[in-house]
Amino acid sequence: MNILTGNDLATGDVIWWTGNGWSRHVEDSVDVGDKGAEIAQAEVAARRSNEAYVIDATIDADGKVRPAHIKDRIRALGPTVRLDLSLKPADPSVGNWVI
Amino acid sequence: MYAYDKYDQAVVDARVAEFRDQTARRLAGQLTEAQFRPLRLMNGLYLQLHAYMLRVAVPYGTLSSRQTRMLAHIARKYDRDYGHFTTRQNIQYNWIKLEDAPDILADLASVEMHAIQTSGNCIRNISSDQYAGASADEIADPRPLSELLRQWSSFHPEFSYLPRKFKICVIASAEDRAAMRLHDIGIELVKKDGVIGAKVFVGGGMGRTPMIAPEIRDFVPFDEVVSYLEAALRVYNRYGRRDNKYKARIKILVHEMGAAEYTRQVEEEFAHMKTLGLDPPVAELERIAAHFAPPPYKSGLTDEIDRSDPDFALWVDTQVKAHKQPGYAIVNISLKPIDGIPGDASSAQIDRIADLAERFSFDELRVTHAQNIVLAHVKKADLYEVWKSLKADGLATANLDLITDIIACPGLDYCSLANARSIPIAQKIAARFADAGRQKDLGELKLKISGCINACGHHHAGNIGILGVDRKGVENYQLLLGGSGAEDVSLAQITGPGFDENGIVDAVEKATEVYLAHREADERFVDTYRRIGMKPFKDVLYA
Predict the structure, then answer these.
(1) What is the ipTM of this complex?
(2) What torsion, rounded to 10 degrees, do the Cα atoms B311, B396, B131, B378 define?
(3) Does the predicted model carry a pTM greater than 0.90?
């Protein structure tokens, strides 16, 4: 599947396209099919995202969206060496999701 | 240390106001990202993996306590309570909001700091020896020239759009603690017939094409250095390739043109430059030098150190170096705790270091390219108190230049250019070699890790180097051996096929075992490697 990601213009936060807006959580992503570039252009023009682009992703065994490349999984979670700063600081096993 | 005059302050304040306006226009949609990107990069503001990242210049690695406290304040107020000291003696913040960036730059300007020219194809922060002004082996303090070059290179109109970024290093000792010959221009202050001048090396660097800078001039009179560098940069600016960013660094030009021809052209340009009267007057050189006058050392101090506490004695043996002034010592503060992140320090730790510098080291400190901190002028009688304070804040690790004193770039955990993570590898290696006795037995062993070929982790200069690569979406690590960034500079060579995340830790351990099996007398790891060559290592690594 193709999902759309970018950074919030003002805060720089990593954001993911949900179909009708942006979320900080990759699991909220939707498949944008071949519409990614078009959505990205509109969202960047509206200053709701900075440098948006499409990446490959899959649905994992739990039915959740998982970016195909490790770089995007680290973007989605946070630094693997500072899980206390990740989006799921209370989950000690969350680093396994990246690897 | 140097203090801004009214011109320095006006320039930095004006830049803050300019960037505040540019940021407001970007947030209001009056500038596109394509228009804004080069503007934010000129102010050190990158967009990295998780957020905006701000790289703040620490000129030649020197900070006052006041400046250091401001760095802690920024970490606390605008970031996530920590900063990352880099391999170019700077500090980076990883979680900056664009809307906060102008306020941060204003805070920095209030303590005579900025983030100007920490990105872009311009002359970057001048790096230098962290022991400047304190080491017995220097022929002069390298900081006055470093400061002169900072002023010369700041907003230099001719060199603001070079073919590629440009890094200059100044040292003044035969012992190279700053990887001088791995810079675009390396300057070693030397004395000739009783007169101080500069030996100039041009065309070094790491990255995808590592090169050691050849010497192009054995002596440039001190008061002509600016003209000489103008000439060196002019030839590069004229002929450096702008069609291919991978061939745009000056090292490629010097290599392809040949050092002799490059030198000839620089000399020709230098002869012309000298007629233009660009070099600063002696009075200006003296004005700058006066800022770096030796601090008011006390005389008659003891050189005795009470070593009755064994942990303290171990720390002294590892972290404390000789000072030129009787009764004083140079203290190296490790930012490499075994379970830590190389170069990271919390705001509380940064504040504590500032306190110690204020109380015990004439109110200043240094950042090293090895991502550690130095208190350059500490009374030996105060060492125990300094150590106790450092210990209380997790800053008393004793591992300077040992295998756990690892240089590591931020890698894929933070950097959008990286192909693999560096920090977890550093942590695993540090854990494997955590035993202090084992580290001491291995002796000096400089291990450096980069998460991509850009080599911010200086892997080419590691006695053991590690390069992270992306192999079909999986992290893989190449092992390199035999590099050095010191006065015996050499480039590390790849051993062979790479290893996975755990395999690279085993490979490092095997390399140390080969070293121990072949070590003669007091050879360091790199000495043994140079004597026996790569084959015995490969035989074990790939058996």
Answers:
(1) 0.96
(2) -70
(3) yes
